[in-house]
Specification:
There is one protein chain. This protein is of the alpha/beta class. About 35% of the residues lie in helices and about 20% in strands. The protein contains ten helices and twelve strands. The protein has an eight-stranded mixed β-sheet with strand order 5-4-3-2-1-10-11-12, with helices on both faces. It is globular.
Length: about 260
């Protein structure tokens, strides 16, 4: 009998508050180790479905490296940094195709800074390492200013406001969703066996990609829980949300619920 090889599963996950639960008693380290043990044991059984791991973070490569050291993060197959503006293969080689794609869409950092001064006057710039070629970032605690800015920017720019304090402006072609869609095509991953995991507003674009499975962790920000609750019944079948399960524990439960792990 001819058995079909199972499609390789892909785990695409945000880091802070999702894969790495800083509020957990040990910073989420135990849950993280349990998840990765399950991912690797899944690949060694006969049918060899190793899981492709993609980290999709708002952090710059600099701040990603800090976190990876701090909690001993296993290296991913692909690293998407700076809210979908930088794609690094094996976590280090810059994907120039993606850079070129963003440039072609148009980008004017100086104009964005001027618009922020005008429409979000209480915004303060984040540290220098977080100001990137295709991402500008501020701290902002006034949602109405973020909304005013979103209305004011040209069509080639996207305003992303998360956790009531992080303001990012990136090219419309960027963002965690578009970057992940690009990476899934590049690595030949199947959307229906891809689990996207997040905890805040900047993860909606990734969770909303066609055909993917989703995981909203139990410790998610209110804006992401509201997004989940507003889904229609069909869409909700494709998203795992258990308010009692946090961080990497929720991710592992979701992998099992969608049968993406060989047990």
């Amino acid at each position: 009998s001819i058995s079909m090889a199972p499609l390789r599963a892909t785990l695409a996950t945000d880091l802070d508050g999702t894969l790495v639960d800083h509020a957990d008693s040990d910073g989420g380290r135990t849950a993280l180790q349990t998840l990765f043990a399950a991912l690797s044991s899944s690949s060694s059984s006969g049918a060899s479905r190793a899981v492709t791991v993609i980290y999709n973070t708002g952090r710059s490569p600099t701040l990603y490296a800090d976190l990876a050291r701090e909690v001993s993060l296993p290296p991913p197959d692909v690293l998407i940094c700076s809210v979908g503006t930088e794609v690094l293969r094996q976590g280090k080689d810059i994907d120039e195709t993606w850079e070129a794609h963003l440039d072609e869409g148009g980008w004017d950092a100086q104009l964005i800074r001027t618009l922020v001064e005008t429409h979000a006057p209480s915004a303060t710039p984040q540290q220098a390492s977080e100001q990137r070629k295709h991402k500008l970032s501020w701290k902002l605690y006034v949602e109405s200013e973020a909304n005013a800015l979103a209305d004011a920017v040209p069509s080639w720019a996207r305003v992303i406001f998360s956790t009531g304090e992080d303001l990012d402006v990136v090219p419309s072609r960027a963002g965690k969703g578009n970057a992940l869609a690009f990476v899934l095509r590049e690595v030949g991953a199947d959307a229906s066996t891809t689990l996207c995991c997040g905890d805040s507003g900047n993860d909606m674009l990734m969770l909303g990609l066609p055909d993917v499975r989703g995981c909203v962790v139990g410790n998610a920000a209110a804006e992401l829980v509201s997004w989940f609750q507003a889904l229609d019944d069909d869409a909700r079948q494709r998203v795992f949300y258990d308010p009692s399960l946090r961080g990497a524990t929720a991710i592992l439960a979701a992998m099992k619920a969608f049968e993406l792990l060989l047990t």
